[in-house]
Write a structure and sequence with these properties.
It is a single chain. By secondary structure, the protein is an alpha+beta fold. It has 10 helices and 20 strands. The strands form 4 sheets. It has a 6-stranded mixed sheet, sandwiched between helices. Strands 13-12-11-14-20 form a 5-stranded antiparallel sheet. It has a 5-stranded antiparallel sheet with strand order 15-19-16-17-18. The radius of gyration is 25 Å and the shape is elongated. 36% of the residues are buried.
Length: 353
């Protein structure tokens, strides 16, 4: 892959507050990257700096091999979609989509053809003469996306474009955005605080916290191999259990020693991170390691599956949360107070100091 966007030492301060600290990042041509993190972590500030809507306090930005660090937005090759749609209410759909084309003095017939093509591309053919107020939120966001793509930008920037939409519309539209991005091959950066959204659409996720990048990796890497306690805790649900490292490949929870694929210095106090799906209720075979009997302490119904909190003498005072399907609970007649064997997967247990 060819590097298309390059950030080096990007820093941003607002008075005494540091919003971004020495951010280095490469984005490949045609890649879909998500900036993921909690509110105030710096992800939107970083996007605005890439767009030229904010000026970095230090650092360099190159796009397609061209230094754009100090260029105004109009001289950078990108399209942008905001959370608030930002459509002109007094203009028709066609005029909204054509806005950038008019500014570039594209011939009227050519612009009209381009608008028709884009409105069809985002799934709203025939809506050219409508006004934004006549469209639903999801439809308005599609038109905002069409407008951003009208000038065929090399870079598409999405600033939490789905957060104002209903849950069902959001899930549907994020799939359409990903499909459209693959079809067009446009390099895309999306800001989101929704981890499920990032995991479902991104080629790579940039997890940010307090103005710094905590981890960059594929959705699977970030979820399965978190680089820090923050990433483990922020991306997905996870159990965090105080433990003590023993000899190589062993860790003790309470009074029980378990096999663990990750090491820490013997005797070190650690926190063990383990996702609910990595505590197995089946299949468990004779001779498997890390098997213990647990008692159901609480069941939280979530539709097709339940979050089940369990306790066990093997875990001492600590409790674990496990994913169990509704069918599994019914099949084994399990409810609060019931017992079942569980197994901790050694390769999925991660230790942090």
């Amino acid at each position: 892959m060819t590097t298309f966007l390059e950030l080096r030492g990007v820093r941003k301060t607002f008075g005494s507050f540091t919003a971004l600290e020495n951010v280095d990042l490469d984005v490949d041509r045609g890649e879909f990257v998500c900036f993921l993190g909690p509110s105030g972590c710096g992800k939107t500030t970083l996007l605005r700096i890439i767009a030229g809507l904010e000026v970095q306090s230090a650092g360099r930005i190159a796009q397609g091999g061209r230094d754009v660090s100090l260029l105004p937005p109009a001289q950078r090759d990108y399209g942008i979609v905001f959370q608030s749609y930002a459509l002109f209410p007094n203009l028709t759909v066609a005029d909204n989509v054509a806005y950038g084309l008019v500014n570039r003095k594209m011939p009227r017939a050519e612009a009209r053809a381009r608008v028709t093509e884009l409105v069809k591309l985002v799934g709203l053919p025939g809506s050219e003469d409508k006004y934004p107020a006549q469209l639903s939120g999801g439809q308005q966001q599609r038109i905002a996306l069409a407008r951003a793509l009208a000038t065929s930008p090399a870079l598409l920037l999405l600033d939490e474009p789905l957060s104002a939409l209903d849950a069902i519309v959001r899930v549907h539209l994020r799939g359409e955005i990903r499909s459209l991005q693959r079809k067009l091959g446009v390099t895309t950066i999306m800001v989101t605080h929704d981890q499920e959204e990032a995991l479902s659409v991104a080629d790579r996720i940039v997890v940010m916290n307090h103005g710094r990048i905590e981890q960059v990796g594929s959705p699977m890497q970030v979820y399965r191999e978190p680089a820090s306690p923050f990433v483990a805790d922020f991306v997905g649900r996870i159990n965090v259990v105080p433990a003590t490292a023993e000899a190589a490949g062993r860790v003790r929870i309470g009074a029980t020693s378990f096999t663990c694929a990750h090491d820490a210095p013997p005797g070190a106090a650690v926190k063990l991170y383990l996702r609910p799906e990595d505590v197995l209720a089946r299949p468990i075979s004779a001779g498997d390691d890390n098997v213990f009997t647990a008692t159901i302490d609480k069941v939280e119904f979530l539709g097709s599956y339940c979050l089940v909190r369990v306790a066990s003498p093997a875990l001492g005072e600590h409790k674990l949360t496990v994913y169990l399907s509704l069918n599994f609970l019914a099949e084994h007649a399990l409810e609060v107070g019931g017992q079942l064997p569980l197994r901790l997967l050694p390769e999925r247990m991660r230790l942090f100091a």
